[in-house]
Amino acid sequence: MTTTRSQGRPYGWSLRRRVTALCVVVGSVLALLAVGEAVVANANRNHLDTLLTKTGPLRTDAESLPTALVNQETAVRGYAVSGDRADLAPYENGLQQEGVLIARMDALLDDQPEIRRQLHVVRDQAAQWRTDVALPIVNATASGGPTAGQALVNERGRQQFDTLRASTDRLQDLILDLRNEVAVKARKTGNTLVLLLILAAVVVILAGVALLVSLNRTVIGPVTRLAEQVRAVAQGDYQRDIEQTGPPELALLAADVDAMRRKIAADLAEVREARTRIEWVNSQLQKQAEELVRSNRDLEQFAYVASHDLQEPLRKVASFCQLLQRRYAGQLDERADQYIAFAVDGAQRMQRLINDLLAFSRIGRLTTGFVEVDLNQVMGDVAGQTEAARQYAGGELTWSDLPVVLGEEPLLTNLLANLVSNSFKFRRPDVPPKVRISARRVDNEWEISCEDNGIGIEAEFVDKIFVIFQRLHSKDAYPGTGIGLAIVKKIVEYHGGRIWVDLDAVEGTIIRFTLPVTVEAEPAELAAAPAVPEQSGGPDERSDAEATGQRPADGNDNNSSGPGGPAAGGSDGPKTGEIKEIVA
Predict the structure, then answer these.
(1) N vs C: which end of the chain shows fewer Cβ within 10 Å?
(2) Which residue from 130, 99, 122 is spatially nearest to 171, judged by alpha carbons?
(3) How many Å apart are CA 227 and CA 194, to the nearest integer?
(4) Residues 105, 106, 111, 115: what is their CA dihedral angle, to the nearest 10 degrees?
(5) Residue 145, Ramachandran bin (φ over 0: left; ψ between -120 and 50: alpha; else beta)
(6) What is the pLDDT of residues 191-222, one digit of tens each?
(7) SS3 at position 543
(8) Band of the pLDDT at 86, cuts 50, 70, 90?
(9) What is the DSSP letter of 368?
């Protein structure tokens, strides 16, 4: 089907077809010129070869040949006068030189029969002169002396040698004519070659001019007009139609550009409509953001109130309830003692819940900045914080070759303390708990594992345990606020990692989490026995002494969070029934 212009006229030849036709025509002409140049160049090379390798040496040898003949004639005359045999040396040398020159010239005259015939004439006449004149004089002088030799030197001998000289002149003339003829032919072929090269250059120039004119008419002009129309559209005139001119390729391009213009115009109308809606949504979002800022300020104020104003009444209630419990225990009836115990336990649990909520809300908000943290040293602090729970359970805590990571040391201490405390808390009855902390590198992350031999976690609950306030057991069976693992998850995510429960554990529970790799750190050697800690390893895990409502011997609340806990002090040495701590 024929493509047509917007005005209805056919497009004509495509740009590719025009360029191909021009290239074929120019290529054919240049090919013919190249063939002609090759033929002429070959002829010119042959002429130059003849001129340099044939006519030059022939002229040189032809000019040397008379000299050799004259030397022979002079030597014979001299010998006839003096009778001295030494005077024949030029004759012998001339005879030898003559043979060499004739043989060398004869080898160069394969394609010049006329010059070869003349050379043979010279050769034969020279041999005849030696037979008729030179040798008789030499023989007569040798036998009869100079008088006999001079008697044979006559006019007939001189005429015969003059005839020989005329033949050598004829030979030189023929060689000179050959040289001139070849030189003329070489000049003609050279001039023809130059003419062909000029014609080739003219063809190339004309082809270039034709190509430029064609490109200007079929490409540059239409492209310039198309660019002007596109710029007008780009400046906002989206309703302007794009004219389809030029060869089929550019016309199709213009049609595609026009289709794109129509699509942009349609999309622009939709965008304007959407922009109106988005501006309205943004205004609503801005109002919500302002409301969220106000709400966050209220929450921060509430956190301040909870951490200061609510703590004091709770401490007072708990303190007076404990005083009632210690002073009037056994003096009231059994129900009154039970009510007092409920009040003490409720006040203490409220304090722990408030502390845990505050700790959860502060993660990532109150930051001290990331530093390099040696997890081996962190585990030393965790061992100290959880020693009371380990001693009570008769358990074992081990770790080895933990890396150096980038993070906040108090938060990482809180994280590991929560995991270790949970492992001691959720132990199997009559089975000493064993907890092991290990690490391995997986690509660009450290994968750190907390393994225990406790009661384990069912697969259906693995996602639930990291949700705040989600408990799998009653508080009577396992005390706590249900925030500990939520704090752990938030700390891990704050450090750019992830946490999960490994369902492939044979027994107990394996909780794994990742931290980004920073620098390779050598594992620190920790003491074989940790110091007695002043508080437990996490906000969610209490020692069994606290679970029974008793306070630690040092008077501190064992429910305080790990990051704010004191460092472990020195131990007085192993005691009977004391928990073992092993650093691999």
Answers:
(1) N
(2) 122
(3) 46
(4) 80
(5) left
(6) 888 888 898 888 888 888 887 887 777 777 77
(7) coil
(8) confident
(9) -
